[in-house]
Structure formats: structure tokens, C-alpha cells
Design the sequence.
């Protein structure tokens, strides 16, 4: 694995996404490696809780890799949305053991969507969170339109998605997007404390509780999101949005 580094501490696994020079942006390799690493950890009976963190002090994950998806067609957009949701994002949400996101900086777009799949989230004071996809001519395609609403409610989720507003850790804590906020230095310890709270409990109960909690969630919304996401890859506005990012200028819609 070149982009995933796992540290095992007794029954806890700390999975680090290592693509620091691109602010840990999720390209296909990162998605595949993270997915297969999680499979290994799910099968490992000794592991009770997983923490996911980004490398460096600047970003958890600054989004899906914009360079990589800039050339996708409508069909690729929809297919990749489904594949990503099935192989990674839904897998995390339905994981048999608790997964905690330790948000150590930017969690934008696909990065926030990744954190939203995790069962709990803690963030450092410098963290910035948002779903800026509409500024790029797309929409959140990894479940963000569904999971953000479920997590923070319609009022804040709609504002964040439609205005591409980026929020800080204080506001995220206020609206219930994160379970706790702390310093960069204490972030992993705070995540570990949450993990300890789970580790003392029955693994079978945790697995069952996660399944029941997820029953609150309407899966049809995810399929609808995949179709809408795919459609946007056929628009001029999508081409303009990603070109503007790559050329380091503002988009002109
Ligand atoms: N993708 C690719 N590269 C990225 C990136 C990203 N999301 N974010 C940052 N980088 C790269 C930058 O291009 C830069 O690379 P070089 O220019 O050095 O080659 C490097 O990381 C360092 O970033 P900056 O120089 O920009 O650092 P700053 O501190 O100045 O700015 C920033 C930090 C986070 C404000 C800025 O990097 C930024 O705005 N990044 C983009 C944030 C963003 O818009 N994220 C949302 C992306 S859209 C899909 C499903 C879902 C999605 C996509 C596909 N499928 C189903 C196919 C979701 C889409 C998204 O996530």
C-alpha cells in the first residue's frame, strides 16, 4: 500500500491516508487501498475500533481528486459514483465495528463525505469542513446530499450544499456535525477516548447497534444522487468548474 498506513495499538487500528502533497485528495488508488485495508481490519477479530486520519497538519482529505475526475463522462460519473459508494462509503457506514474520523484539517467534498460515513467525528481547531461541489459544476456524489442532511438537519445542510459554505470546527460542533473539537496535538487522544468507550462494550452489540442506527437511512436517496451526479458530467458548467480550479481562477457560470 502506498497511500495507506495502519498503526495497530492493541484492539484499535489507526488508518492514515498518506497523500499529503495533494492534501490527501481521494484518487482511485487511495479509494481502492482504503477499501481493501478496511476489509482486512473488518475480518481481523482482534480489532474493535478503527480511526481514520489524514497525514500532515493541513488536511484530513481535501476532496475527491479534481484532476482525476475532470475528464469523466456522464456514464463514468454515474458508474464511479455507484462504485465508490458501494466499495468505500457504504462499506464504512455499514462496517461491523465503529469507525471514527479524526478530522485534522480540511475535510472538503469527498473528504467530508468520507467523514460523514464514519460513525463518529472529532475535529481539530484548524479543521475546515464543507461540500463545495456546486462551485465546480457537480454535486456531492458520495452520499453527501443524503448524509449531511441526516447529520445536521435540512436547514444547515441545504445552506452548506447550495452556497458551498466552508465552516470551522466551532460551527461544526454547534450544528452537531462533529462529536468533539480539540487541539491538533490532542486530536488522536480524543478519538482514542471515544474508541475506548466502544471497546469496553460488547462487539456483537456494537455491530447490531450500527445496523439499527443505519436503518434510519433511506437508501433510495443514494441511488438518486448517483444518477443526478452522473448527468452533471455532461454539462458545460462542469467543464468550466473543474477547468477553473485547475487553472487557479474563479469559474464563470
Ligand atoms: N483534488 C486534487 N488536487 C487537490 C485537491 C483536490 N480536491 N485539493 C488540493 N489539491 C492539490 C492542489 O491542486 C495543490 O497541488 P499543486 O498545485 O501543488 O500541484 C496541492 O493539493 C496543495 O493545495 P493548495 O496549494 O491549493 O493549498 P492551499 O492551502 O492554497 O489551499 C484548499 C487549500 C483546500 C483551500 C485548496 O487546495 C482547495 O480549494 N482544494 C480543492 C477543494 C475542493 O474543492 N474540494 C472538493 C472537490 S470536489 C465522485 C464523487 C464525489 C466527488 C467526485 C467524484 N465520483 C463518484 C466520481 C466529490 C467531489 C469533490 O470532492
Sequence:
Amino acid at each position: 500500500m502506498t497511500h495507506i498506513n495502519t498503526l495497530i495499538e492493541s484492539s484499535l487500528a489507526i488508518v492514515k491516508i498518506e497523500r499529503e502533497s495533494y492534501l490527501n485528495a481521494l484518487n482511485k488508488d487511495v479509494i481502492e487501498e482504503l477499501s481493501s485495508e478496511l476489509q482486512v481490519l473488518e475480518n481481523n477479530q482482534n480489532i474493535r475500533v478503527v480511526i481514520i486520519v489524514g497525514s500532515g497538519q493541513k488536511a484530513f482529505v481535501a476532496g475527491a481528486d479534481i484532476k482525476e475526475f475532470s475528464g469523466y463522462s456522464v456514464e463514468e460519473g454515474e458508474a464511479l459514483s455507484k462504485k465508490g459508494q458501494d466499495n468505500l462509503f457504504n462499506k464504512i457506514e455499514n462496517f461491523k465495528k465503529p469507525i471514527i474520523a479524526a478530522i485534522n484539517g480540511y475535510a472538503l467534498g469527498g473528504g467530508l463525505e468520507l467523514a460523514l460515513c464514519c460513525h463518529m467525528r472529532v475535529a481539530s481547531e484548524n479543521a475546515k469542513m464543507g461540500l463545495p461541489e456546486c462551485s465546480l459544476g457537480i454535486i456531492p456524489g458520495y452520499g453527501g446530499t443524503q448524509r449531511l442532511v441526516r447529520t445536521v438537519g435540512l436547514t444547515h445542510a441545504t445552506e452548506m450544499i447550495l452556497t458551498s459554505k466552508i465552516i470551522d470546527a466551532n460551527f461544526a460542533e454547534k450544528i452537531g456535525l462533529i462529536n468533539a473539537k480539540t487541539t491538533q496535538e490532542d486530536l488522536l487522544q480524543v478519538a482514542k477516548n471515544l474508541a475506548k468507550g466502544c471497546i469496553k462494550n460488547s462487539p456483537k452489540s456494537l455491530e447490531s447497534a450500527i445496523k439499527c442506527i443505519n436503518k434510519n437511512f433511506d437508501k433510495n436517496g443514494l441511488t438518486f444522487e448517483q444518477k443526478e451526479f452522473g448527468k452533471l458530467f455532461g454539462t458545460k458548467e462542469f467543464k468550466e468548474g473543474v477547468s477553473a480550479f485547475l487553472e487557479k481562477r474563479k469559474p464563470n457560470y
Summary: The longest strand covers residues 4-9.
